[in-house]
Amino acid sequence: MTEGQPNWFLREWIADKKMRQKDLLDRTQWQKSKLSKLVNGGSNYTRETLNALAVALGIEPYELLMRPERARAIREFEYSAYKLAAEGRMPFRPE
């Protein structure tokens, strides 16, 4: 990311979920100015911010730090690994 741009992918996640900023405002109950600053890089995020947005978007907080397609690929890989382990085809078992 270049200076002045957010180092997370909130805008991409909003589009990926086919949402509008208004939808997030309704779900988070935040003021419009707060969300606008977060989306446009005018404000830094906190752990609480990540958690609230992740809940509103239906994703894990760390996924906001990567593009949606990468997060989906990681989820698919994890699911496949757990499935193989459950079938006894891997030398480990998920916790």
Automatic annotation (TrEMBL):
It comes from the Bacteria. Pfam families: HTH_26. InterPro entries: Cro/C1-type_HTH (IPR001387), Lambda_DNA-bd_dom_sf (IPR010982). GO terms for molecular function: DNA binding. PROSITE patterns: HTH_CROC1 (PS50943). Residues 10-64 form the HTH cro/C1-type domain. This is HTH cro/C1-type domain-containing protein. It comes from Sphingomonas hengshuiensis.
